Amino acid sequence: MSRRSSRLESAGYYDNDRRPLIVYRETTHRIFKTRKANFRARQIPNVTDSNNNGNNSNDHIMFSWKIFGFLFLLLPLCFGCGYLVSSWSSNDSKQLRELQDQLLKLKTNNLPNLALETKGARIVRHRTSEPYQTPEPVMGFLGIPIYKRPVSPTIVIQGHSDLTPGQCWAFSGGLGYLFIALPHPFTISHVTLSHISKNVSPTGSISSAPKEFSVYGLNEVDEETGVYLGSFLYDQDGDSVQTFKVPCFWTTQLTHSLLISLVSQDSGVFKFVKLIVKSNWGNRDYTCLYDFRVHGNLADCGH
């Protein structure tokens, strides 16, 4: 019988027959296995840590490549989106301008033409440019040369809806004046100028069409300057009938003489309109004007 330890006995190491529950060989084997397992457990984390370091490095490289690839794909996408946005905005601006032009046309179609001969408007001849005279005569009956009679400026205020090539008032050069007496005092909001389009022109060109022009309002037939209502540009590539809105700033440009004549009237009320054509689209000989209209409202002068 081996010597028993009181410490082991108190710890329950012996059974009821006073024999050890665990032999030394078994205990040694288990301890060895435990130590071996612990050793492996200590070694495995080291190996795992080294693998993790390698994996972390590889993961870092892969993450960098993913970021680079994402940016590589994102930059063209951003540029493409910017181009689309800019093109959309330009298209929207173009559509907005076209819509505004259409709305202006619809609005002016309902506005009365104040400078209409059938309503009492007339041309003041001594303040209007002379009609252009064709230098070459036209061969008439039996070969007799006949000079073609020039078209009167009255055709401009007759309100022709259909514009026929050649049926226009022409004046020499690119500078000309048209002076219209309105049937009643009016406030002026828009003016309309018309010329045949390139599609209708026999030559395919409208170099004789007015280009830059200005409009003035007057209350006396012999008034020199009048009130400046605005300058405009007729687009040769635009519609044949083009309407222009008179700016509001002209009301601050009333001359002293006009203020005196308007003491008993509303400001901005005019009896006469003067059109000054300053240039055309390239014709050196003459400028043609097919139609000119004045839009606004009848003034309540309180008489």
Can you describe what's shown?
With 303 residues, the protein is α+β, with helices and mostly antiparallel strands. Helices cover 32% and strands 23% of the residues. Strands 1, 5, 6, 7, 8, 9 and 11 form a 7-stranded antiparallel β-sheet that branches. Strands 2-3 form a two-stranded antiparallel ribbon. It has a two-stranded antiparallel ribbon with strand order 4-10. A hairpin with an 8-residue loop joins strand 6 and strand 7 (227-233). The longest helix has 86 residues, at 24-109. It starts with 5 loop residues before the first helix and ends in a 5-residue tail after the last strand.
Compose a concise summary of this entry.
The protein has 303 residues and is of the alpha+beta class. It is 32% helix and 23% strand.
Helical content class: 25-40%
**Radius of gyration, in angstroms, nearest whole number:** 49 Å
How many E-type strands? 11
Low-confidence spans? 44-48, 249-266
Distance between the termini: 149 Å
Please trace the helix and strand order, writing H or E for each element.
HHEEEEEEEEHEEE
